Each structure stands twice: as C-alpha cells, then as structure tokens.
Amino acid sequence: MQPKVADQQQGWGDTTGELNRTYYAGLYKEELLDNILPFWVNFSKDEKHGGFYTCLNRDGSIFDTDKFMWLQGREVWCFSHMFNKIAPRQEWLDMALHGAAFMEKYGRDEKGNWYFSLNEQGKPLVQAYNIFSDCFAAMGFAALDKAAPSDRFKEIAVTTFDNILHRQDNWKGIYNKAYPGTRALKGFSLPMILCNLSLEMEHLLGANRVAEFIPTVLHEVMEVFYQPDKKLIVENVYANGTFSDSFEGRLVNPGHGIEAMWFIMDLAKRVNNPTLLRKACDIMLNTLEYGWDKEFGGILYFRDILGHPPQQLEWDQKLWWVHVEALIALAKGYTYTGDQRCAAWFKKVHDYTWKHFRDPEHGEWFGYLNRQGEILLPLKGGKWKGCFHVPRALYQVYSTFSF
Q1: 6 vs 295, which has greater pLDDT?
Q2: pLDDT at residue 4 above 80?
Q3: Can you tell me the distance from the alpha carbon of 146 to that of 201, in angstroms, rounded to the nearest whole number?
Q4: What is the structure's pLDDT at 9?
Q5: Higher pLDDT, 175 or 308
Q6: Which of 295, 364, 293, 359 is nearest to 326 (CA)?
Q7: In terms of Cα–Cα distance, which of 67, 35, 63, 27 is closest to 50?
Q8: pLDDT at 195
Q9: Of these four, 99, 105, 153, 183, which has the most CB atoms within 10 Å of its CB?
Q10: Percentage of residues in the chain with pLDDT exceeding 70?
Q11: For 255, phi and psi rounded to 5 degrees?
C-alpha cells in the first residue's frame, strides 16, 4: 500500500495555510485499518501456546519466541481499544481475549506482580522488576472489560492498579541497583504513565477517584520534573524534587516529554483548564524544537539538559515511538488551541516519519534509524517494540482530526 503523500501539499488548505484535517484523518485511519492492525493479526498470535509473538522480522516471520508481559498487555489493550472505539470486529476481540488468557494464566508471581518476560510456553524468564509490565496489564484488562465485561477482568485491572500505587515509591524493590541513601532519585516515567492510565481506567476507578488522583499527577509532571528555566522536562530528580547535576539528573528524553504533554492536554480538556492546556502545548513545542536534529532531521533520542555528552550511546538514534507520539501531541495541540506552530510542525514531523519509518513493501513500520535516517534494524517488533505506539498514534491522530 503506497502512502497518499506523494503530493506533499495535499494536506494543506489552499489559502489559509491550515492543515486539511479531513485529509490526514482519512490517511491515518486507512493506514491503521489496512496495514498496521492486519500485520499483528496475521503474524503475532501464538495459536499453540497462547499469547503473542512480538519479535517479528520485516516480513512478519518470528525471530525469537520470548514473550514480554508489557508488550502482551499493550497488545491486549490495542485490540480491545480498537474494538471499543472503531468497530466491534470479532477478530479484534478474539485477539484481545487470546492475549489476556495467556497473561492471566502465566503472567504474575505469587504476590500479584507481573513478570517482565516468559518463555514461549509461559515459564518465567525475568522477575517482576519492571512496574511497567503492571501498568500495561492494568490498561489492557481495563480496556478488555469495556469490550467484554467480566468481573474477572475488572478484578485483575483494579488489583494491579492498586499494587502499582503501593509500589510506586520503590517499584523495583529488591531489584533496585542503586545504593540506598547516596543519591536518591525518582523517575518521570511512572507519573507520566499514570496520567494516561488513570483515565483509561476511569470506568473501574470511578470519576471521583480519578479526580482526586489528577492533581498529584499534574504536580509531579508539571512542577517537579519540569525545569522552568530550561522549559524542559528531565527524566530524574532528587526524591525531594530538586535538580540533580548528574548523568541521570541532566537526562532529557524528548519523546517522553512530548508524549506526556498530550496526556496533560487531555487532562486539561477534561478539567476545562485552558491555562494548563496552553502550558502543555508550549512545553511540547519547546521540547520538539530542542530535540529536533537540525542537521539530519528527526527527533534525537536523548540529550543532556546542560549540553554535556549524554551517557547513552544511542543518544542520536531516531526511534519510531518518539516520532509518532509527537504526531499525536501536535494533532491535539493544533485541534485544541489552533496554534499554527503545531500545524507547521505536524507537517514537518509527518513528512519525516512517513518517509523514513513506514515500510512500503511489507506491513507495519520500522522502529530504529541511525542519525542520518537510515534503517538500523529491519525488525517490526522485538523486546521493546510491539503492537502499541504506531496503532495508538494512527488512531489518536485520525480521531483527533475528526473531532
């Protein structure tokens, strides 16, 4: 399937310079329904052992059979979400139920924590050190409960969410490598995900509990990790919320900051706070400008907020999820505020993303590029890339532009 972007001006209005939202809505919806979702339906389902394969070559063939719980939960969420939001297609519900059955049978330890990975048959490989397995299990079962209401799905989602909150201050527990007391840091990833997860689970948690939860999350994201002097979000701060002049404390992940801002924009819409909405949009645009590679194009993976060399050797790679999350944030920023900077940036990021990540010969998109925009790995899924960011982004952009 060839993209409908050969005429690069087609998505722009004729006289106003504004985005043709109807054009982009149709383009993104078609890509989702005709390319991305069929790829995962056709290639990821393990009919023999249950669950999903995510380590898929360019053509969908399997190159590794390990199963990662956070990607299992993400795929359950994806197909449940599409069933709930687009159309009640039986094949989507079947996919979600298939993954959930495997997760329920094999995915947790005796304390209810979700393992990081299992082998093909469901035997644990890596302990439950990573709370993001729990986050996406909760999200997956909550979405599945909307598609196929079940007391069992509700119980799994809610108890997992409660366990996340119980563990959040020391979520690695005995698996934490940091020596206690010397440099106590807390990370941005969990508060960021909780912004979105709380809304995803509102039908189970109740509007009052979510409303009580929102101010704490907003404070963490917009006041603790946000550095107003640089107008950027850092990945780690001291436990008391102050800046740490260290490798970890200076780390900026532009993709995380941009993704978090569309979560915040959705929350701002929910609570009818135009000031918060404007602030989130501005932070998103500042982060995108900061993270954009002026020489080769695309968004850099990591930067040091003080301009020092980052410790991550992959700092200059271009990753799929960073770019598609930026497209969501820009679509929401433009639709919610009318800011023309969002329109210009959306066109720029769209052109780069569809040119470099989209595979015109096989389904799904590539995940990893070098700084020059060349494909580093031909895989379509692996330990970190699964059925989540691309389909979610395509859905979010088309639904936002259809608003």
Answers
A1: 295
A2: no
A3: 10
A4: 41
A5: 308
A6: 293
A7: 67
A8: 87
A9: 99
A10: 96
A11: -60, -40
Closest CA to 43 of 389, 393, 394, 381: 381
In SS3 terms, the chain reads as CCCCCCCCCCCECCCCCCECHHHHHHHHHHHHHHHHHHHHHHHCECCCCCCECCEECCCCCEEECCEEHHHHHHHHHHHHHHHHHCCCCHHHHHHHHHHHHHHHHHCECCCCCECCEECCCCCEEECCCCHHHHHHHHHHHHHHHHHCCCHHHHHHHHHHHHHHHHHHHHCCHHHCCCCCCCCCEEECHHHHHHHHHHHHCHHHHCHHHHHHHHHHHHHHHHHHCEECCCCEECCEEECCCCCCCCCCCCEECHHHHHHHHHHHHHHHHHCCCHHHHHHHHHHHHHHHHHHECCCCCCECCCEECCCCCCCCCCCCCEEHHHHHHHHHHHHHHHHHHCCHHHHHHHHHHHHHHHHHCECCCCCCECCEECCCCCEEECCCCCCCCCCCHHHHHHHHHHHHHCC
Could you tell me which residue, 191 or 305, shows the higher pLDDT?
A: 305
Q: Which residues contact 121 (CB under 8 A, 6 or more apart)?
A: 49
pLDDT value at position 13?
Answer: 41
Q: In terms of pLDDT, which residue wins out, 17 or 31?
A: 31
pLDDT score of 42: 98
Place of tokens 């959306």: 346
Q: How confident is the model at residue 117 (pLDDT cuts 50, 70, 90)?
A: very high
Sign of the CA dihedral with 159 first, then 161, 165, and 171 last: positive
pLDDT by residue (tens digit) across 205-245? 999 999 888 899 999 999 999 999 999 999 999 999 999 99
Tokens of 248: 């970890």
CA–CA separation, 103 and 118 (whole Å): 10
pLDDT, the chain, mean: 94
Let me know: does 126 contact 117? Beta carbons within 8 Å.
yes
- Length in residues, the chain: 403
Rounded distance between C-alpha atoms, residue 20 and residue 24, angstroms: 7
Q: pLDDT at position 68, please? A: 98
- Which among 234, 344, 222 has a CA at the least distance from the CA of 275? 222
For the chain, the distance separating the N- and C-terminal CA atoms, rounded to the nearest angstrom, is: 26
CA dist 258 and 322 (Å) reads 8
- Confirm whether pTM is higher than 0.85: yes
